[in-house]
Amino acid sequence: MATAFSGSREKELWRRLGEVNDPELDESITEMGFVEFAGVADDGGVQVDFRLPTYWCSPNFAFLMLDGVCKVLDQLSWSPAYRVKLHDHMFAEEVNRGIEAGKAFGEIFGELAGDLDLADLRETFAMKAFKRRQEAVLRGLRQHGLTDREILGMDLPAYDVARFESGETAKQKPRYRAALLERFPDRRADEPVFVTWEGQPIPAHALSAHLAELRSVRINMEFSGALCRGLKQTRYKELDVVDGEPTLVDFIMDRVPARAAPTA
Q: What pLDDT score was predicted for residue 58?
């Protein structure tokens, strides 16, 4: 029977898991539905079952997400023992065996990653997230009637007092602030909030062109996100029947039972 104590731990667990993002999409793994199960046992131990949209999802993406999961589990207030299990992935066996053996993710994926520099990969995804978040806030400020010069002149105190009731801008405003300070940890409060990924100021006359560049990044990420959701939903849904017949997807996924041979 669930207690208030175990319930608070469950909430903390899910809140922490929600802090882990799909690195390619900059969306929470819980919102994407990648966490299939997360629970706290009576002894405080934690179990997390993780499942990606396809069998062949990049092992490097899996690495980054599972590494993030383990890092947030290490931050849980009661310091539990935990078990993370990857399901239905081409490297699930290697990953799960390595985790159970207590290996670091770097060891598990050392051979799988080949020559790929995961630090460079992390930076590429951080750059995309920075740009996507910034674009949402810039668009929101424009829609609120601020001029381009007013927007680009904002410092952190002015940024922090800006309020948005709901929507994408409200969601991305604190996330852009976090990305800005992660990218430029020594940034002074009186410096402009809106700069390029390289740290260069954005002239007011160039804001429209800058937004066009950011928009292309967002559209690409949104398309990838929609595709991932669709693939996951298609992969794990029940058999669909249209007009009494299975769909093409059901044949591709080999979910159609063999028909009995016709009788004479």
A: 79
Residue 222, token pair as written in the block: 């949104």
Q: pTM of the full predicted structure?
A: 0.78
Q: How far apart are CA 55 and CA 52, in angstroms?
A: 7
Query: Which residues, at least 6 apart from 192, have a Cβ–Cβ distance to it below 8 Å?
Result: 152, 153, 154, 155, 201
Query: How does pLDDT run across 79-88, given as a tens digit for each residue?
Result: 999 999 999 8
